[in-house]
Amino acid sequence: MIFFIKTDKRFDIIFLRFANEKKHYICRTQNMLKESKIFLIFCLSILLINAFTLNAQSQVDSLKTKLQNAEGKSRVSLLIKLGYFLSSEKPNEAIKYLDEAIELSDEINSKWSKADAFFNKGVALWHLGEISQSDNYYEKAIPIYEQFHDSLSLIKVFNSQAINHQMKGDINLAVETFFHSLDYAKKINDKATILNTLLNIGVLYDNSGDTVNGLKYYLEALKYADENSKASLALLQSYIAEIYIHTNRLNEAEEYLNKAIENSRASGDSKSLIWAYTNLGQIQLKNGKEKSAENYFKESLNLARSIDYKLEIIHALTELGKYYNRIKNYREAEINLKEALKLAEEINSLTDLSILNQELATLYYNTGNYKKAYELGIIYKQYSDSLYAIANSEKMEELQTKHELKQKDRETKLLVNENELQKKIIYSQKVIALIISLLAIASIIFIWLLFRNRNKILKAKNELVLKNEEINLSRKEISGKNEVLAGLNATKDKFFSIIAHDLRNPIAAFVNISELLEEDFDRLNEKDKKEIIGQMNVSSKNLLRLLENLLTWARLSNNKIEVYTEKVLLEDIIESAVHPYIQSAQNKKIKLKINTPKDVLITTDKFIFQAIIGNLVNNAVKFSNALSEVSIGFVSRNEHFLFSVKDHGIGIEPSQLRNIFVLGKVSTGRGTMGESGTGLGLVLVKELVEKLNWQIKVKSEVNAGSEFIISIPKSDVEL
């Protein structure tokens, strides 16, 4: 692979960080693309936490008021929060609060708080342009986070370090650090973190001239965006549009930018609009609409000044200067470029200084000031040589290959571990089955001995006859016991399989939640605790439903379920069956629509029919997409009535459809919100339907949904 390094490209930086207990991400962006672009700063939430508040100043005022009477852990927490909120706008003031937090953390022996204070001080120093000092404090935070196995905090530090590496021109170390961060993000499967880290990696490749790999990582990141990440989505759409602009796919670029503007406004992020307006200006220039391009560039500058972010102001001024240079309005070009250069010198942005010196050199050359043009050209060359080298691109390719190999190695190890675990489970099952079989044989032998002793005390005249009768009886009993034993063994094998693979999931959820409460209880706010308790409630309900299905299936397997038929109202059965799953549907904003006639009487076992409906509704909600619909219908067809449960979810693969009702034959994936599945529910539905002498079939299409249809004889229905 060959990377084409363009010296007028500016590096993108996405700065990920999050505060103390709330763990917010703030994404800081700085770039150097072909047309001298600058990215936005945006906020994202992770875990169970709300987004960063829009009224930062009111937050600061409130925290300062609380700080006056705070002591101990409470005071440390308030100091760190103040440092976090002030780090970008008033970094010097933030550092004072964070220094006190560091000192108090030692006094109360709170290592975790100390690590948070170190990290936020590193952020504040970054805003002051003290990159080396910023790195020092990041390094102090890392071993503490590693001690507590705090993967999320480690990710924020690695991303922050990568930004510093990139600003210092060490692109190889930057991409290596981002890949390190991506490994952690995929390990904990946090979608927001994976999205932003992939975005960072895409930016690095894009700005190194490798737009193919840049677009690859942008599109991969796009897979992790959802309704809760509109700011990230706007950013990605702008980046993709920018690549389309440079490849003259202007219509596609404009389509993406319109979507980016919509998502930027929805997220309340003015900074993303700056980037979108700038790109729209580039499109207008390519279409020969120079006045329209100027208006977009000016609007971008006005927005940048309104939020008072120097990097965005530099970028907007640079774009206007380049525009005026192009239309030969050299006076306006010089005014805008010099203002941008002054701001770049204030924050010591090497990448901005590089491109501005290049553009001013071009201006002076065009106006005949060759001496000044030559001097600035030398300065530009110095900046360019220090920031870019072909070796960087080769190293980046090497790092990407190492990351992919590392990922494959991890997947291989996981597969090996899973196989070993499966072998152990199978071995345990065989041992248990052998023990049960031996006990059964011993019992049979004991019974046989009893009968033999009984035969000896019978009268001689009846001895032969009675002995023959008893032997025959023993044989029948042995045969019956063997059949029962075989059934028990089959039931046991399936039972152990379900327990080994599925029962552990909700139990593991309880364990994880309890560990989180034990380790982080003091760090969690009331809302976090409430949400965790809500998770425990959901896990307990899932566990209860699984146990109910297990017990019902076990009874079915041993023919211990009797059918007691009676006439019952269809609407009453549906209401009772659906009620336990209303909350799950509401959580996913799924509409449960019941399309059944009233006053319909069905002759059936109401408890069995209720279990059938409940499992079908639970399955439909689990595999339905948010904001969709699950419908329950009842219609007449020829000699039967058809009862159906239909969803508009992910559907079932054709290869798995034929075995959907066979336990162990179908891979049970997770629901659309990560809900665990056992596969037992549908197996139970099939056996219960057949217990009622009814029939069931399923229709399904991938990404379109599934419909389960039960055929009920008209003799069982009364309208």
Structural overview:
With 719 residues, the protein is of the alpha+beta class. Helix content is 68%, strand content 8%. Among the domains are: 398-557, no CATH class; 566-718, Heat Shock Protein 90 (2-Layer Sandwich), CATH 3.30.565.10. It has helices at 56-67, 72-86, 91-107, 111-127, 131-147, 151-167, 171-188, 191-207, 211-222, 230-246, 250-267, 270-286, 290-307, 310-326, 330-347, 350-366, 370-387, 390-456, 460-520, 526-557, 570-578, 582-587, 606-622, 654-657, 680-691; strands at 24-27, 42-45, 566-569, 591-595, 601-604, 629-637, 640-646, 695-701, 705-713, 717-718. The strands form 3 sheets. Strands 4-6-7-9-8 form a 5-stranded mixed beta sheet. A 3-stranded antiparallel beta sheet has the order 3-5-10. It has a two-stranded antiparallel sheet with strand order 1-2. A hairpin with a 3-residue loop joins strand 8 (695-701) and strand 9 (705-713). It is elongated, with a radius of gyration of 34 Å. Residues 1-54 and 389-393 have low confidence and may be disordered.
Summarize the structure.
The protein is an alpha+beta fold.
Give the fraction of residues assigned to helices.
Answer: 55-70%
Number of helices: 25
Widest sheet, order of strands: 4-6-7-9-8
Low-confidence stretches: 1-54, 389-393
Q: Please identify the structural class as seen in this structure.
A: alpha+beta
Number of strands: 10
Average pLDDT across residues? 75
Global Rg: 34 Å
Sheet with most strands: 5 strands, mixed
The N- and C-terminal alpha carbons lie at a distance of 72 Å
Q: Give the percentage of residues in beta strands.
A: 5-15%
Q: Specify the overall morphology.
A: elongated
